[in-house]
Design a protein that fits this description.
Length: about 550
């Protein structure tokens, strides 16, 4: 669950440190006070795209931190451990956006990408915005909602993957039938190319060793002369360096007896003599093994020329030869598979059969899930002032199927008794649609594993007794989830277990937003304001007190 959120210089919030409780929390405030700022900030902490516009005017950067208790989320804990982000049952998401639009993301103090924030956020929070019902009109949203409610999202993804695999093989088969002669020509060319490059037996490490060997063989005479010169100067000529150094060492040995300050110099020169002696021995060993080998030099040069000729033939660098061979082998493998009509046809049929089996399994699951969801939503509609209304899910068969299965999913609604169910977009008004959307959201959320649900003014367009029912729907959800609801309805606010008020204040010529927890007396005043507007009378205050009393009884 969400334990705490901290904001610094975010939009019109200068500083905010807010602690959250489990259960049902409501946020209220006057229009324009910034009630949705909290949701916007949390969305950024969960990885949503942000820009410089979220930075409070006159400041360098905005900072958002959201602290979650994930002790009861083993899947997220495993994900954090896998990404080396775990912190003993805690998950602290942090986002910093500067006034140039640059963004930095952190999980438990470690820098991460926005994508990783989004991945973690998927385990933690679901945000239902006041315009969620607009996406509900889209066919993709309806299909995903049904599959998600039935726990079939993974199966739907498998259906999509196997459909694409089948279609790819089918396209290969069609292409092969359409132009088999061109494929055969390409296959023969690739066979020759693979054979030629394989016969070369090129290896990058061996190529580097060969070039080194060539440098040594080609310069054997220069190497021999140079080594002889060095040996002559060091130890084998007249007046060698070693003889001179030994003489200097002997002289200094005598002088040290007169002045010990020369001892350090004596030791350095003596050490140099030892190193020169060792160098002389190494040069002698090298000279003993150094020999000119014209035959081997010719062999090496021929091999080098063979490799260079091959690289020039294919107009590539020598180092790219293995890559070209691998690419040719892969393409040849594809063509050889395609060239076998029988095998390709069998693979295509097998792929379609696998897709069809999964799609039929998905269809059966959708049919069962649709029946359950229809009943739940239709029942909720009766409570939400849609008496006699009916919710249906049509599964329209598609002859050839698609990546989404064997049918189209379409939500239908009859808003009142006697009406024929029709697509949502054609029959539902804005108010009706928002109520149906809320019923769907609460139904789906009850089976979701996400521990925190945020409803941002999803109760727009309803009021009276319906608003009270909405409050109870959300309260029921809070029995198993942490619920945060931004609302303008006193009936909903009165049911909340915890109440936060959002307000604006003037400061330093600007406006800042504040969010404060309300005690019982303050809740009465706030609900009275929501009931009566600017002027709060004893009557509205008494009404507010009664509403809170009923809300406590419901809790």
């Amino acid at each position: 669950m969400l334990r705490q959120i901290n904001l610094r210089d975010f939009v019109i919030v200068d500083t905010l440190d807010l602690v959250f409780e489990s259960g049902f929390t409501v946020l209220t405030g006057e229009t324009g006070a910034g009630k949705s700022i909290l949701v916007d900030a949390l969305a950024l902490a969960l990885g949503e795209r942000g820009d410089a516009g979220v930075v409070r005017a006159g400041t360098a950067r905005a900072e958002i931190s959201a602290d979650f208790d994930v002790a009861d989320l083993p899947v997220l804990q495993a994900w954090l451990a896998e990404n080396e982000l775990d912190d003993d049952g805690n998950c602290l998401l942090r986002r910093v956006i500067d006034n140039a639009g640059r963004s930095r993301c952190f999980i438990n103090g470690r820098a991460v990408s926005a994508q990783q924030l989004r991945e973690a956020g998927e385990f933690l929070v679901d945000i239902h915005g006041q315009h969620a019902h607009q996406s509900l009109l889209k066919a993709a949203t309806q299909r995903e909602l049904l599959d998600g409610y039935g726990g079939m999202s993974d199966l739907a993804q498998q259906v999509s993957q196997h459909y694409r695999q089948w279609r790819k093989l089918d396209e290969q088969l069609l292409a092969l039938r359409a132009d088999s002669s061109a494929v055969e020509i390409e296959r023969e060319q690739l066979q020759w190319k693979v054979q030629e490059l394989s016969a070369l037996q090129f290896d990058t490490d061996a190529w580097e060793a060969l070039q080194h060997e060539h440098g040594r063989l080609a310069n054997a005479v220069n190497l021999g002369d140079g080594v002889a010169f060095a040996l002559n100067a060091l130890s084998e000529g007249e007046a060698t360096a070693l003889e001179l150094i030994h003489a200097v060492t002997a002289k200094l040995t005598t002088l040290v007896d007169y002045d010990s300050e020369l001892q350090a110099t004596h030791d350095l020169i003596e050490s140099a003599a030892v190193q020169l002696q060792e160098a002389s021995h190494e040069l002698r060993r090298y000279a003993d093994h150094l020999e000119s080998d014209p035959a081997r030099l010719l062999e090496v040069e021929q091999r080098i020329e063979q490799v260079l000729d091959m690289a020039r033939k294919y107009r590539i660098k020598v180092e790219q030869l293995p890559e070209v061979l691998e690419t040719a082998q892969q393409r040849l493998h594809e063509l050889e598979q395609c060239a076998d009509f029988g095998k390709l046809e069998a693979d295509t049929l097998a792929a379609r059969a696998k897709w069809l089996a999964l799609a039929q399994q998905l269809s059966a699951g959708r049919s069962q899930t649709a029946a359950r969801l229809e009943k739940i939503i239709s029942t909720s509609m009766q409570q939400l002032a849609l008496s006699g209304g009916q919710f249906n899910i049509a599964l329209v068969p598609q002859a050839d199927g698609s990546a989404h299965g064997l049918e189209l999913v379409e939500f239908l609604v009859a808003p009142h008794a006697g009406a024929v169910p029709k697509p949502l977009a054609k029959v539902a008004s804005g108010g009706e649609l928002s109520r149906i959307s809320l019923a769907l959201q609460t139904a789906v959320s009850q089976v979701a594993g996400v521990p925190t649900l945020i409803f941002d003014e999803v109760d727009v367009g309803i009021g009276g007794g319906v608003a009270e029912i909405v409050g109870h729907l959300l309260k029921d959800l809070a029995a198993s989830r942490q619920i945060l609801c931004i609302t303008h309805l006193p009936q909903v606010a009165a049911v909340g277990e915890h109440h936060l008020q959002v307000s604006k204040a003037s400061r330093d010529g600007g406006v800042v937003s504040r969010i404060t927890p309300l005690d019982e007396a303050e809740r009465v005043d706030e609900i009275a304001r929501m009931l009566g507007g600017v002027t709060i009378t004893d009557t509205t205050r008494q009404h507010a007190h009664e509403m809170l009393g009923m809300g406590r009884a419901a809790r």
